[in-house]
Amino acid sequence: MIRVVVVDDEPMVCAHLRTILGSAADIEVVAQAQDGAEAVEAVVRHRPRVVLMDLRMPGVDGLTAIERIAKLPEPPAVVALTTFDADTYVIRALRAGAAGFLVKSTPPEDLIGLVRVAADGHTVLSPEAARRLVAMSADGRRRGDDARRKTEGLTERETDVLACLGEGLSNADIAARLHLAEATVKSYVSRMLVKLDCANRTQAGLLAHEAGLVKR
């Protein structure tokens, strides 16, 4: 069972998400919160696998909550919820440790599938959305230069794996594309996260976009 905490300052949004996710047999919404402080408390109390986190809330906002949750032992995957009119804020959330983001208008059937993807430890970030985020970043050019410098120390195979992360591919998909064993891909990803000083796959995937490694 995938345990989920829903965080939004609008009760109707929480109720809507709870209804959608509750229709899936393998997902249980164990708590909901209306600000970041409540979200952190809910995570500590209920130990969910996934948190859907609104970013702009009164009191403790979503970005601060993501930073606090990332410091907890064995933190859950936190997926930022956005209306896509706050792109720079979303980028900050991803760099703070969010596992990805979803637009609030995501169709119900897609939302359920993406929560499952997040629960499995994969990136919830489409290549198109990632490109838009990087392009709209105020310091995108500087970050691009920094990203290219970071990736210069990678081997050719590590660079290939990083580009696949930028496409949001799972380890199994990367293994199939590059003709590697899945365990080998896991080793590459683990080493790259350390080399690139990335907290998770999503940060590495965003770095791949900033470095211009994702062509799709």
From TrEMBL:
Q: Taking every annotated instance into account, which residue ranges of this chain make up the domain HTH luxR-type?
A: 147-212
Q: Which GO terms are recorded in the biological process aspect for this UniProt protein?
A: phosphorelay signal transduction system; regulation of DNA-templated transcription
The record's CDD domains line, in alphabetical order, gives: LuxR_C_like, REC_NarL-like
Q: Upper lineage ranks?
A: Bacteria, Bacillati, Actinomycetota, Actinomycetes, Pseudonocardiales
User: What GO molecular function terms would the record report?
Assistant: DNA binding
The answer to whether keyword Ion transport applies is no
Reading the lineage from the top rank, the first entry is Bacteria
Domain Response regulatory, residue spans: 3-119
Q: Which residues carry this modification: 4-aspartylphosphate?
A: D54
Keyword Transcription regulation belongs to the record: yes
A Pfam family of the record is GerE
Per UniProt, which keywords does this protein have? DNA-binding, Phosphoprotein, Transcription, Transcription regulation
The record ties this protein, via PANTHER family, to: TRANSCRIPTIONAL REGULATORY PROTEIN NARL-RELATED (PTHR43214:SF24), TWO-COMPONENT RESPONSE REGULATOR (PTHR43214)
Q: Which Gene3D superfamilies match?
A: 3.40.50.2300
Protein name, please? DNA-binding response regulator
